[in-house]
Amino acid sequence: MFRHTLCRLRPKPTSLILPILTRAIVHRATLPLQLSAKVSSSRFFQPRKFPTQPAPPELLDINLYHKIADESLEILYGAFERLTEDRDDVDVEFNSGVLTFVHPNGTYIINKQPFNKQIWLSSPVSGPKRYDWDGEDWVSARDGSRIKELLEEEIGIKVAFVDLNL
Fold this sequence. Notes:
Belongs to the frataxin family. Keywords: Ion transport, Iron, Iron storage, Iron transport, Mitochondrion, Oxidoreductase, Transit peptide, Transport. There is one protein chain. 42% of the residues lie in helices and 21% in strands. It is α+β, with helices and mostly antiparallel strands and 166 residues long. The chain has a domain at 62-155: Metal Transport, Frataxin, Chain A, CATH 3.30.920. A six-stranded antiparallel β-sheet has the order 1-2-3-4-5-6, with helices on one face. The longest helix has 28 residues, at 13-40. The termini are far apart. 16% of the residues are buried.
């Protein structure tokens, strides 16, 4: 009986913690709203603008995407192959839709991403990039750069995707 009375007198841990948790949850829920209001009203906040907007992936037919991406990778492979004929310090390999180019700067990897309808490039110099087809070229939605400009700047090869047989 004495033991039973002590249990009723001692507060339960949840009754002590619940008010603290409630305050934390309410604060955490309202904090993003407060921050977004400050950011959107800031005179320094400006939406990013890009020179070209790639076609939304849902508008590009998946079969057309595969055709464009495959032919683009073939064009890139041809450009890399020509470079390997002139230089001994580079190598290129194209297997299962993955183009690997070994250069003194490091290894470049270019591959298709069918789910996103993109081509991804991993550069040892500038890092990973994702490119969308804009009707004429592969363009980064993040910074508006073109894949051919990056390859010309970092490796020194020139490619043109005008040879695509669409």
